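Design request, C-alpha cells follow.
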C-alpha cells in the first residue's frame, strides 16, 4: 500500500514524500510538477504516453496540465519519491520571463539530469522532512535552493519567447470552455459528471472534449478530477474535517469510493495523508 510519509505546504504549493508500491491513474495538475527519487528502486512514469525513467540521476519534470501516470513494477521493491507540486506564480519568481506568460509550457522535455548539487538538495530536503516533521523556514529555504537550481538547469529561454500569434492563441478560451471551467470550479460534485456538464454548457460531449484538448491539452474528465483532488487535499489536511462530509460534498456515492479516488490520485489514503501533513 502506497503512503504519504510527509507533506509540507505553503505559498510554493506542496511537497510530498511518498512511499510508492502501486500505480497511480492518469491525471494532471495545474501545478508545475517535479518528481525525484529519494530512495528505493528505479521506476518510471508515463507522460503523454511516453515512458520517462526515474532514477538516482534522472528526475521527471512536467508542465502544468501534462497528463501522466505512475506505473509501478510489482516485482520491484517500493520507491520513495519526493514529489513537488509547485504553484506557477511562485515559480515565476525564479524565471522572470515566465511572469508575463503564466500558461507557457516552460519545459521542452520531461527528463532532467540531476547533478551532484541537485541530489544533495534532494537528500537534504527529504531528511529534513522526516527528521523534523514540524514545518519551518528551513524547509522552505531548502526547497527554494533546489527549485532555483533545477529551473536554472532546465529552462529553455527559446521556449518562453513565443510569437505574438502564439500568445494570442494560447490566451483565448472559447466561451463553452470558459463556462465549463467555471462550472467545474464552482460545483465539482455536480459537474464532474460530464453528461451534466455538456447539458449545462449546451454542446455535445465530442465537441467539448475536442475544445478541451485543443485549449488545455486534457479532456474535461481529467480537469474535473484535478479540481476534485485539489479540493479534497485542501479539506483533508484540516484536522477537524469529517471524511464522510468530504465524500458527500465532492459527490462520491460512498466514503470508500472517495478513499479509493484519493489514493489513486494522491498516492495515499486520506487518513494517512492527514497524519503526514506537517503543521
Amino acid at each position: 500500500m502506497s503512503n504519504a510519509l510527509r507533506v509540507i505546504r505553503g505559498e510554493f504549493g506542496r511537497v510530498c514524500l511518498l512511499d510508492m508500491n502501486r500505480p497511480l491513474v492518469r491525471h494532471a495538475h495545474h501545478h508545475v510538477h517535479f518528481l525525484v527519487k529519494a530512495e528505493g528502486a528505479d521506476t518510471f512514469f508515463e507522460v503523454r504516453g511516453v515512458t520517462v525513467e526515474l532514477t538516482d540521476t534522472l528526475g521527471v519534470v512536467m508542465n502544468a496540465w501534462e497528463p501522466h501516470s505512475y506505473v509501478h513494477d510489482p516485482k520491484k521493491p517500493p520507491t520513495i519519491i519526493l514529489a513537488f507540486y509547485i504553484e506557477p506564480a511562485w515559480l515565476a519568481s525564479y524565471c522572470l520571463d515566465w511572469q508575463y506568460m503564466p500558461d507557457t509550457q516552460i519545459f521542452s522535455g520531461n527528463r532532467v539530469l540531476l547533478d551532484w548539487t541537485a541530489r544533495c538538495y534532494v537528500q537534504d530536503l527529504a531528511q529534513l522532512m522526516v527528521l523534523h516533521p514540524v514545518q519551518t523556514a528551513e524547509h522552505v529555504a531548502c526547497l527554494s535552493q533546489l527549485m532555483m537550481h533545477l529551473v536554472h538547469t532546465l529552462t529553455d529561454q527559446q521556449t518562453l519567447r513565443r510569437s505574438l500569434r502564439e500568445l494570442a492563441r494560447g490566451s483565448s478560451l472559447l466561451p463553452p470552455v470558459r463556462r465549463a471551467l467555471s462550472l467545474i470550479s464552482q460545483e465539482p460534485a455536480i459537474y464532474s459528471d460530464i453528461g451534466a456538464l455538456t447539458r449545462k454548457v449546451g454542446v455535445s460531449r465530442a465537441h467539448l472534449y475536442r475544445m478541451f484538448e485543443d485549449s488545455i491539452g486534457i479532456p474535461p474528465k481529467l480537469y474535473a478530477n484535478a479540481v476534485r483532488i485539489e479540493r479534497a487535499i485542501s479539506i483533508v489536511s484540516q484536522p477537524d474535517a469529517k471524511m464522510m462530509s468530504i465524500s458527500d460534498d465532492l459527490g462520491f456515492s460512498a466514503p470508500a469510493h472517495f478513499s479509493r479516488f484519493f489514493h489513486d490520485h494522491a498516492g495515499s489514503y486520506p487518513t494517512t495523508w492527514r497524519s503526514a501533513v506537517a503543521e
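Comment from the thread starter after seeing the answer: thanks! The domain at 3-164 is CATH 2.60.120.10 (Jelly Rolls).
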